Amino acid sequence: MVNYYMFFLIFLSCILVLVSGFSRNLPILAFDEGYSHLFGDNNLMILKDGKSVHISLDKRTGAGFVSQDLYFHGFFSASIKLPADYTAGVVVAFYMSNGDMFEKNHDEIDFEFLGNIRGKDWRIQTNIYGNGSTSVGREERYGLWFDPSEDFHQYSILWTENLIIFYVDNVPIREIKRTKGMGGDFPSKPMSLIATIWDGSNWATNGGKYKVNYKYAPYIAEFSDFILHGCAVDPIVLSSKCDNTTPKTPSIPTGITLDQRRKMENFRKKQMQYSYCYDKTRYKVPPPECVIDPKEAERLQAFDPVTFGGSHHHHGKQHRRSRSKLKEDDDVSFM
Questions:
Q1: Cβ proximity of 277 and 141 under 8 Å
Q2: Cβ count near 240 (within 10 Å)
Q3: How many CB atoms lie under 10 A from the CB of residue 285?
Q4: Measured CA angle at 281 (ends 275, 287), to 5 deg
Q5: Per residue in 68-83, pLDDT tens?
Q6: pLDDT (tens digit, 9 = 90+) per residue, 123-149?
Q7: pLDDT for 177-204, tens place per residue?
Q8: Which residues are catalytic?
Q9: Distance between CA atoms of residues 300 and 111, nearest Å
Q10: What is the DSSP string of 221-244?
């Protein structure tokens, strides 16, 4: 464990605060360099360039892919183009999870893209779970300032020991700081990167009012520009692959610059449609990390109530590591 922390500190020493546009300096991987097919048979197609992949949903199945390594902190990104036209009930997800290894105390960091009826916009949802805290959803939901089905846009996750930031096109849209009140609810164990497309008809669009219509299938989500810049962890011995031989790579941020914070606040003021912090039906008392803004609370009342689909851990085909599966009661610590 001492060696692990030495390696981890070396990894962190390479991380510096950088201005917007940092991800353009990070290496982009071919699909096969970082990811493997998870489920969906022929509904996953790697393009000829090897750097792009399509996953599709039809009446038979959805599809997904998973990173070849587990990661303990880092910066993770992909450019995504979502299906167009009628997409009600369709869910596209780009997220981190260790639900295949820690079934009852897993962690997640989620981007979810929720389809809509014709003429209505896609919505984006973010959420985290830590240590199996699925009874305390920390969802936020937003609109976007562009049509995500017209072109590729970059969606990124920064995860450190005490901070998680979600980015859209290098604009931070949400910052989650670890607080004492959160206890073990902050993600703290190594996770895989996963992307899926699946049928969320029972909740994704207007609480399940509008379902997937397979007349418009296949629904195709396109992925490219894969960045996996983190500290890889061996899934069996849980040792870090970061050591003093790791070449120094271009920097990634450890926080939000003043300019980025201004952009984030502007985005949240214009685009946020739901925050768990203001959901008095779910939480009589807001979770401890919430900072209540009365003006924000009033503005969010204008939006319809929302329904959630829960953890990805419970959806579709689970990925099982071929060499090892940790029990949820294993005495393993990464802090």
A1: no
A2: 22
A3: 7
A4: 55
A5: 999 999 999 999 999 9
A6: 999 999 998 888 888 999 999 999 999
A7: 999 999 889 999 999 999 999 999 999 9
A8: 108, 112
A9: 20
A10: EEEEEEEEEEEEE-TTT--B---T
